Amino acid sequence: MAHLSDYLSGTHYKAKVKSSKRLTPADSEEIKEIIIEVQDTHFHCKIDQSFGVIVEHASPFGNQVHHRFYSVADLMDSSDKFPLITMLVKRCSYVDEFSGEKYDGIASNYLCDRKPGDEIILTGPHSLPYAVPEDKTANIILIGMGTGIAPFRTFVKHIYNNVKDWQGKIRLFYGARSGLELLYLNDKDGDLTNYYDQKTFEAFYALSPRPHWADPIELDKIIEGKSTEIKEMLTQNNCYIYVAGYGKILSQLDVAFSNIIGSKEKWEIRKAELKAGKKWAEIIY
């Protein structure tokens, strides 16, 4: 297992913030789309990779830096040869379970406060578990929550822009608190809607029924609403399931897939088969 020191001892890259744009309204969770320009032509990040951001921060445990990983939301062409990377960052805070005090997330607040021209330090690139199957008839179920849509946005764009003659089904399920927080599936900046006319691609989203009351996002109900198609996909050997988002999503998914496939026991067996065949991958935070 890799440790923090393993990543910090590698090559570091300087990057500059090119733009920082808030995607969500002022009265909701702050999520920013940040475009950075890596000041090194040797830095090559692919769609199945992530990168780290290093923030100087002295902690009570003796660490002098904080290291946080981010998925690539988009890879852009750059006229001056320096790589351009788009990332999604949600300004986070947490409550210490022992003291009850509220603290700001270190990397997220640092990045959300950066302005164009500011410099940040990167590590990587580092691997992600979301590989594009070599089998172009493979069926893929993508499930994301919040900023968990970032790697899947890149994934879908890569398949339809760069992989020729994709034949398998791709079904994207995405959860957000409200329609205003529905990143890349809205009227304003919803570029994923460009692929709705693809014969193989469909996207579905779930919202909280009462976002201001912090009711749970009913992603499981949206998935179960497509139970006939998902059950058929799960019976095939070339089915892949990729998940990204909050930790609580896993228990929701286990219930939903158990209902779809017929029982908890049947789903446990099928999930174990997917994992053994490297057809189940997750990034949970």
Unreliable runs: 1-7, 209-215
Q: Average pLDDT across residues?
A: 80
The overall number of domains is 2
Instruction: Spell the H/E element sequence.
Output: HEEEEEEEEHEEHEEHHEHHE
- Shape verdict: globular
CATH class of the largest domain: Alpha Beta
Output the radius of gyration. 19 Å
Figure out the total of helices: 7
Binned, the helix content reads 10-25%
The CATH fourth-level homologous superfamily of the largest domain = Nucleotide-binding domain of ferredoxin-NADP reductase (FNR) module
Classify the fold: give the CATH topology of the largest domain. Answer: Rossmann fold
Structural class: alpha/beta
Biggest pleated sheet: 7 strands, antiparallel
Strand order of the largest sheet: 4-3-9-1-2-6-5
Strand content: 25-35%
Overall description:
The chain is of the alpha/beta class and 285 residues long. It has two domains: 4-127, Elongation Factor Tu (Ef-tu), domain 3; 139-284, Rossmann fold. The protein is built from seven helices and 14 strands. The chain has helices spanning 4-8, 106-112, 149-162, 219-224, 227-234, 249-261, 264-276; strands at residues 12-22, 31-38, 49-56, 65-71, 74-76, 84-90, 93-95, 102-104, 119-127, 139-145, 170-176, 201-207, 239-245, 280-284. The strands form three sheets. It has a seven-stranded antiparallel beta sheet. The chain has a five-stranded parallel beta sheet with strand order 12-11-10-13-14, sandwiched between helices. Strands 7-8 form a two-stranded antiparallel sheet. β1 and β2 (31-38) form a beta hairpin. The longest helix has 14 residues, at 149-162.
